Amino acid sequence: MTSLSGALAAATITPPHIEYGQLSPLLVVFGAAVAGVLVEAFVPRERRRAFHLVIALGGLVAAFALIISVAATPSLFAHGSPGHVVAMGAVGVDGPTLFIQGTIVVLAFVSVLLIAESSHGVSPFAAQAAAVPGSAEEREGLLRGISHTEVYPLTLFAVGGMMLFPAANDLLTMFVALEVLSLPLYLLCGLARRRRLISQEAAMKYFLLGAFSSAFFLFGVAMLYGYSGSVSLSAIAAAAATNVSSATLLYAGIALVGIGLLFKIGAVPFQSWKPDVYQGAPTAVTALMASCTVVSAFGGLLRVFYVAFGQLTWDWRPAMWGVAILTMLAGAIIAITQTDVKRMLAYSSIAHGGFVLTAVVAATAAGLSASLFYLAVYGLTTIGAFAVVTLVRDPAGEANHLSKWAGLGKRSPWLAGVFAFFLLAFAGIPLTSGFAGKFAVFQAAAAGGALPLVIIGVLASAVAAFFYVRVIVLMFFSDPAPDGPTVVTPGLFTGAAVAVGAAATLVFGIAPEPLLALASHAAAHLFVR
Amino acid sequence: MNAAHVLAASTVGAGAVVAFWILAVISVAAALGLVLAPRAVHGAVLLAVVMLSLAVLYGVAGAPFLAFVQIIVYTGAVLMLFLFVLMIVGVSAADSMRETIRGQRLAAGLAGIGLLVLLALVVGHAAIGPAAPAGSNYGVLNVQRLAQLIFTRYVFPFELTSALLITAALGAMVLAHRERTSPKPSQRDLARQRVRGDHPAPLPGPGVYARGDAADMPALLPDGTPSPLSLNPVMARRRGSAIRVPGPGVPAPLPPGEPGKDGGPDAEPDREGAHP
Amino acid sequence: MIPGDYVALAVILFVIGAVGVLIRRNAMVIFMCIELMLNAVNLAFVAFARLHGTIDGQVIAFFVMVVAAAEVVVGLAILMAIFRSRRSASVDDANLLKY
User: Fold this and answer.
1) Which of A235, A409, A432, A488 could join A509 via S-S bond, C-beta 3.0 to 4.6 A?
2) CA dist A126 → A132, A200, A299, A394, B188 (Å)
């Protein structure tokens, strides 16, 4: 009987306290995703897209409004506190997190516009993903003009995971958020309408390599748990500060967790998935990945390395130096050899990840705010660039081979001009947001004692500028091929995406101060512990 | 002795050590078998062996609930799903053991040894001490304590995993569910098609011979050639089956009396581990 | 029980799984090796939980199982789609995307 009464006594559980208000942006996005699934279940096929657009875009707008209202709550930053830890220690709500979540929501809004583009009768997504490419069923599906509308709830789940990943205050929530953001992306990569074999291959590669790297991440979490007895980031930091014995578990944990996070960013030597996945995925999904996933992954990296390992900078900085150098140089150099515009942009995104890593290495508030600013402006430029890529088409689909882009400037000067502007922003030419971002990042890195990184960064930028300018020259100063691709008139959504990207690149290039001030205000107190 | 004493006793003492060493040897051997087995189905069964021995290890380590969840969910659901998909993908699909990237095996092996040495040094140096004294967490109240944690401190990731499950269900539907684009033919339509087609009569069954009567033995026509109508097309595509469907690229069948000899044109001569 | 032994076993299984992912060419077997790695991680969590006397590690192992189940569903759906298109599960045949 003693065991029974003991069991009864232990059966009382105090209900957990969840701060729904501060979690509301996340909950809205996940709620919109679930509503999307219900739309799939109950709404007839013809009207699904309209419902999905309203729910997805409305949900993202509501989430952005809620983020602003949470950031404006007076109690959040009262008395100089960096923020709150909510949901029983699982989620941290602080300045950098809110900035990153806001960035992700804005970028996701523009990406959903690209995903929803269906002018000229062509949606970028497969009619029947389960049909074998080249079969009669696929032909029937294409003739009927249907396309998978499950991409909207999948995108919203991915965006929810991306919003949670930098906000996760313990490594378990971070791991679950990593999987929540990754699984829909694996699926979305495989749903292209044209060139389905390449798309499925990209999905498989992304999936296998992603699962492999999250197993490494998880083993790192196990090591850190073994070292400190907890997976909460602040508990790990406290254990690292006090307990000097058996630190080998800690170092192994840092290394393995770092491997998992660097994979998501696409840093060398874990970058091999990026070119294939960016090339094979539907371009709208590539835009989503290149902007939102990179921002979210950097947010996670920043939180883990600044909070959990913030006192151990002597230990992880040298390795991060090496990774940053390799990433910048490899991304810039290999991009020179590329002949496919999406692969080229993928390698350029790897190089840009390296530039942000130089600010991460600084491990200061200035480094944090510079990274936040760079990620925001880079994300908008990237979406604009990929939106332009969707517009260059030939009868077989998108014309991604660079040889087909020859002479585009002579046939569609506006489009080529906008794309040239985006490429100049990637190269970091003054008066574009790319220059402001690079300036901020390199300044923070130099102030943080990483001057050699800045020198290598400038060199890598010069190398990268070479291939960007080469594409511009190709577009404007060579003759178009007689059977070359056409530039379709952008539909409303794609036009909006290009316009937002171009406007942001111009505005933040000419007047970056407001956004810079916002980023440094957000990063002033670093992360909540 | 009540249950608490039994449970506590199982986690200390010589019994636990013996159990650990036996299960460790079994699981490592099965893991090596998984990595080296040429056929994927053998690998799946060996993975089941690893999972079951890990389940017993969880029991010895004081996690009885986790042990049962490992058996029921991981081995019983997840691995069975693997086996189902393996059956659909192709049971006899054996890996070609030939390298496509030269030196990849060697490089992977060296990388593995390097990783093993590194991690062994870590774990060896780490001075992982003895187990803490088992508190109330490791007795009869194990499940209650787990429930307390899951529903208080870890309730947010718990709710978040629902997003994962919805995504998984949605993804499976999208990638694996073929929607009908035309109405399903009824029994009447199928019968009408059959009667108006080439073969109104039922198709011939497989052949029955002195040496074998398996379902993949073709029946023979009066002139000794195998009857393609008696073949199950799925089996006919399997490598190494007794059937060669006469057609382009496949030579004329062997004279009667020698069914089942392999050596058709699509058997690669440099495949190791191929089964006849 | 001796937690150090369990962790050593977990390390060995993890490395065997990692080498398996690098060596094998059948996508299903690669995926099974990844599952082996996840199982090894679970064992490490349980051992470390016993080391500290808490059961957070068991809860985390439980969550890892849930995540692995969802990942298996998505992964097998993708692999099945690939198999249907190519009639082959070998990752060497997936070579349309190159340098």
Assistant:
1) A432
2) 11, 11, 32, 18, 33
Tokens of B242: 């007794």
B154 and B266 in a common domain: no
What are chain A's partners, defined as 3 or more CB pairs within 8 angstroms?
Answer: B, C
Clarify whether residues B51 and B154 are in a common domain.
yes
B205 lies in the same domain as B161? no
Kindly report the nearest CA distance between residue C55 and chain A, in angstroms. 10
Determine the pLDDT at residue B179.
79
**One domain for residues B87 and B155:** yes
Quote the tokens at residue B237.
């595509």
CB contact under 8 A, A208 and C64: no
The residues near A340 (Cβ < 8 Å, ≥ 6 apart) are: A279, A400, A401, A402
* Same-domain status, B87 and B210: no
Shortest distance, CA C97 to any CA of chain B (angstroms): 16
ipTM: 0.94
What confidence tens digit (pLDDT) does each residue in B229-259 have?
887 776 666 645 555 544 455 454 455 444 4
> Whole-model pTM?
0.89
Tens-place pLDDT, residues B157-178: 999 999 999 999 999 999 988 8
Question: What CATH number should be reported for the domain holding residue B147?
Answer: 1.20.120.1200
Instruction: Evaluate whether B246 touches B219 at the Cβ level (below 8 Å).
Output: no
Residue B236's domain comprises 201-274
Taking contacts as CB-CB distances below 8 angstroms, the residues of chain A near B145 are 10
User: Best residue in B160, B178, B180 to probe A by mutation, most A CBs within 10 Å?
Assistant: B160
The C-alpha of C86 sits at a distance from chain B's nearest C-alpha, in angstroms, of 11
Domain identity same for B248 and B150: no
Inform me whether the C-beta atom of residue C35 falls under 8 Å from chain B C-beta atoms.
yes
Per the structure, how many domains does chain B have? 2
**Quick check: is B155 in a domain?**
yes
Pairwise CB contact (< 8 Å): A130 & B144: no
pLDDT category, B94, cuts 50, 70, 90?
A: low
